[in-house]
Amino acid sequence: MKTRWGIIAGVCALGIALAASAGTFQDQDGWMQRRVSGLFIHRIEQQLNITDAQRMQIKTILQTEKPAILALAERARQERMELASRPTFDEAHIRSFARQHESTVEDALVEREKVRTEVRQVLTPEQQQKAEQVREDLRSRFFERLATVGDQL
User: Fold this and answer.
1) Is residue 73 assigned to a domain?
2) Closest CA to 16 of 102, 64, 76
3) CA–CA gap between residue 127 and residue 41 (Å, rounded)
4) What is the CA radius of gyration of the chain?
5) Number of domains present in the structure of the chain
6) Is 73 exposed, middle or buried (0-12, 13-18, 19+ CB in 10 A)?
7) Domain-located, residue 151
8) Is residue 23 within 8 Å of 33, Cβ to Cβ?
9) Would you say residue 150 lies in a domain?
């Protein structure tokens, strides 16, 4: 059960990241997403006390992986559009779609872990420990918010 929730959290987080990287966040040119993303990244940089040299190494990693991330984001966007184009609920179609979508999720998880591992290697042991703490805090806040989905309506 714990593994299932971990996978669900990972997929949700990845979905958010993919949507953000595709620039599909509330505006046409993605300026709002870049601003929110920039603030989030800046906050993490401060919490981990990232040096300029580390920032450049991480930037290089992300720029190297950007084509793969963007391709996955576009693939996921196309799949979401395909699913959303159905006007009625069709469980059989959704189950079939989910099986087809599995490979995109798998590829995205592999890419995420690849980038995470490469970035982690740039960090000092203290920064790695702090990064794990930040990650756990984000995960717990995600599940707290998930528990209240619909309560705001």
Assistant:
1) yes
2) 76
3) 15
4) 17
5) 1
6) buried
7) no
8) yes
9) no
Residue 88 — φ and ψ, nearest 5°?
-125, 160
Read off the pLDDT of residues 13-54 as tens digits, 9 standing for 90 and up.
555 555 555 444 445 556 566 655 666 677 888 888 889 999
Query: Range of 105's domain?
Result: 2-140
User: Which residue type, as a one-letter code, is found at position 78?
Assistant: Q
Q: Which amino acid is at 30?
A: G
Amino acid identity of residue 9, one-letter, is A
Q: Which residue type sits at 118?
A: E
What tokens does 122 get? 């740039």
The length of the chain in residues reads: 153
**CB-based contacts of 26, cutoff 8 Å, min separation 6:** 32, 33
Asked, for residue 125, whether it belongs to a domain, the answer is yes
| Secondary structure tally for the chain: helices H, strands E | 5, 0
In angstroms, the first-to-last Cα distance of the chain is 29
Q: Which residues contact 109 (CB under 8 A, 6 or more apart)?
A: 10, 11, 14
Between 21-25, 52-56, 96-100, 105-109, the lowest mean confidence (pLDDT) is in: 21-25
